[in-house]
Every structure is written in C-alpha cells, then in structure tokens.
Amino acid sequence: MSATLNVGKSAVIDASQPVAIPPLPDYSGRLLGYTAAAVMIGVGILENVFANWMYWLIAGALVWPHITYVLTRKTFLNRVQRIRQHMLLVDCAIGGMFIGLLGLVAVPSVSVALMLMFSCLIVGGIKQWTFGVLLMVISLIIAIGIQGPAESFQSPLLTSITAMAATGLYICVTAFYSHQQARTLLMAKTQIQNQREQSIALSHKLSKYLSPQVWQSIFTGERDVRLETQRKKLAIFFSDIKGFTELSEEMEPEALTELLNHYFDEMSAVALKYGGTIDKFVGDSIMIFFGDPTTKGQREDAFACVSMAIEMRKHMKIMRQKWRSQGIKTPLEIRMGISTGYTTVGNFGAENRMDYTIIGKEVNLASRLESLADAGEILVSYETFSLIKDRIMCRDKGEITVKGFGKPVAIYEVVDFRRDMGPNRSFLEHEHSGFAMYLDSDKVTEKERRSILQALEEAADRLRNEDDL
Fold it and tell me: How confident is the model at residue 366 (pLDDT cuts 50, 70, 90)?
C-alpha cells in the first residue's frame, strides 16, 4: 500500500524550475504500507483467520516495494511523466486483489482500503482517488470470483487491533511527512518570492541605466543580450544647451550639476511621453531615436520625434522662468537637429560590456544639424520634412554640405504644428526683461483658467497704474 512521504533536506531553490519531489519518500511510504499489510496477514494466519498459503502474500508484500523502487529508478520508467500516480494506481489494483484474497474480512479489508484511499488523496486528489477506487473494486471482484468470500467477515480481537494500529501508524506517519513537505514547500515558496522581489528590485535599479523600451524588451525576453545589430530606418534627434559653456564658468559645480540633472529629468519625461528611445547623455547633449525597439511606422516615428522637439522647445521656456527665479540670469536655450534614414542599431562593444546604440551617416547628419541650429531652433533633414510636412509647418533653410553625403543636403526649420498656426492657435508666448508669459490653452483646466485671468488682470491693473504715475 503506497503513500507519498515527501520531505527533503533544504536546498537552494531555483525559481525558474518547479520544486522536484524526491523519490525516496515514495519508497519509504510504500514500504511502510506493504509492511503494515504483511503484519495484518501474519497475525491473521496465526489466529487462523487466513489460510497458511497466504504466507506467500507476506513475502510478496515485503518484496514489492523494493521491486517498484528499482523499476522507477533504474529503468526507462524513471522518464515517464506522472510515474508516481501511475504506480499508485498499480498499488490500488494490488490492494483490491489483497482484499479479495482476504475474503472481505471486515477490519483488515477496511484497513487496507483506508491506506490506499488516503494515499490517493494525498498524491493526486479526487481524480486520483476516483481512479484508484475503481481499480481497487475491479481487482477485488476478480479476486472474489477466484477465491470466494470468507466464511465469516468478522476477525478476532488481536487481528482487528493489529489492523487498526497498523493503519493508524501508517496514516500518522504519512500525515507527519506530508506536513513536513508542506512546510518545505512553503519555505521554498517564500524563498522564491523573496528572490523574485530581489530580482524585480534589481531590474528596476538596472533600468535606470537603460532606455525603458530597451529594458522592457530585455526583461520580457523579446531581445537577447548579445552582440547583434540590424539595419532600420529611424528618426534621430540631437540637442544641446546654447550658452551652457559660459554658464558652467559662472556657476559652482554642485549648482550646475543640479541644474543639468533637472534639465535632463524634464527632457527625458517629454521624450518618454512621445515614445523616444533615449540613447545617451553627453555633457549637456541628449541623443534620442525613434523606431526601435518599437515602431509605429516611419511617418509616425518622424512625427513623434519632431513633436517631441517642439514640446521640448516650449517646455524650455517654463524651465527658463524657473531658473531665472533661482538667480540664473543666463538665458539658456536649446538647439535641436533631426534626421531620418537607415542606421545600424543594436548592441555594440564586447561580450562583457555592451552599449545599445546606433551608428551611421544619418546619426552624423542629425548631430551636424544640431550644431548648425540657432538658439531655440529645430533643424530637420529633407527626409524628415517629407514625412511631417502635412502636419508641421517648416521653413526652407537651403542646403548644407555634410561629410559622408555625396550631394548637398536640404534642410528645414521647424516652425510649429499647423493646427497651432493662425488665430486659433493654443500656444502663446511673450518675453521681456522683467516679464515672461507662456500659455498653452489646451492644457489649462477651467479652475486654472479663472486663476490665470485674475493674475493677468492684476498685472494689467498694476501696469496701467504705473503708466498713470
């Protein structure tokens, strides 16, 4: 009669693999169950309840657990899935045969049936129990048909006590080891959960060094971490701060670092809003590209890139007002360059140190456009202009000669969204010494609208009063 006494020594848990159930407790449980059945038969023979030929059943009960162990561990059966459940069904068939050969003597028969049903419930639940009972009943009927029932279904007191004691011992020992297994599994689950939480925390820390799109593609398994590249058509963006070199000579390093980090933080938020892949920060420069690892198509990628640049230019006005209130008088402006074309994108470097970036002449062109741009200006290549011209107003800036390009390159200056041109535009700005106004009416709530109107009226009243004086 078999049970599963599954308990093992603590070991390092691999969270990627299911917790394995050791075979030795199966052997121990089966040995315990069959030994209990052999003791019951032996006592029954001594009390003349069973015939003497049943000594062969005792021998079979004591040998079978060892045979099963060899079959399931030393032969091809060790590769069979759900071998534990299959072998327990064999035990149920043997148990039913035992009960039939015992002649359905009540207490020993019930004891054997209880041990089998208890084992089935532990190992495989209701489904295993159902199949086990079915096989037990079938083999029992066959054995009764061969042997016939006993003359009396009652057993002497000693045989009954032995049967109940053996069954009780089997159930208690099996329950104890099942409890130990539950504790082991709980500890394993806790350890796996802790490892998972540590992995998540570590991955979030590492994500600070990668663009969110690249980090997500790596940790979801979409992209392998190996040296490989591919050719893709991307929109490439470069920007830097006009006047930053002069500012760095005026400010203390700590204050300059704080300003630069605040600038990068704000610009990164805008880039992520439009789905840009942040490649790197170099000094006060930012390099971003669109189209990898995710893309919405060439036209939408280019439009998202230019839209990001326009919002960065607008957002810079807000930041400039904040810096001015902090005592930074230098009027910091950003200049930007954008090109669209085929580049080589992927992991570059060595096996133990990689950098996910892009290379190609379009990268050089975007960098060249950024260096040619004036303060607050966005220059784009012709390829980019052709993809966005229906939604964004641009101004022809002529042609330039760029290393790596056989012909002069036509460039354009981004003016604004076409929807924001004319009297219905949502964006307004006005700056003078001592006065700065930036308004994007699409982003203003009704509550904020009243507050802004009140502030403008107070400012207008004050200016009128000073004129009267």
Answer: very high
What confidence score (pLDDT) does residue 166 get? 86
Which phi and psi angles does 22 have, rounded to 5°?
-65, 145
Model confidence at 365: pLDDT above 80: yes
Tokens representing 258 are 């704080």
Of the candidates 322, 402, 400, 337, the residue with the CA atom closest to the CA atom of residue 374: 337
Question: 306 versus 430: which is more confidently predicted?
Answer: 306
Q: Judge contact between 211 and 279, C-beta under 8 A.
A: yes
d(CA 229, CA 223): 11
DSSP, res 236: E
The 8-class DSSP code of residue 222 comes to S
Q: In whole angstroms, what is the distance from residue 435 CA to residue 452 CA?
A: 15
Give the DSSP per-residue string, 2-33: -------------TTSPPPPPSHHHHHHHHHH
Domain range annotation of the chain: 24-200, 228-425, 428-469
What proportion of the chain, given as a percentage, has pLDDT over 70? 87
* The CATH number of domain 228-425, selected from 3.40.30.10, 3.30.70.1230, 3.40.630.30, 3.40.50.10090: 3.30.70.1230
**Distances from the Cα of 254 to the Cα of 99, 257, 260, angstroms:** 87, 5, 10
Enumerate the β-bridge partners of residue 431.
436
Q: How many CB atoms lie within 10 A of CB 87?
A: 20
List C-alpha distances in Å: 433 to 317, 430, 437, 466.
14, 10, 11, 17
Q: Looking up tokens 């600070």, which residue turns up?
A: 208
Angstrom distance (rounded) from CA 283 to CA 276: 19
Amino acid letter, 353 = R
What is the C-alpha separation between 355 and 416, in angstroms, rounded?
Answer: 34
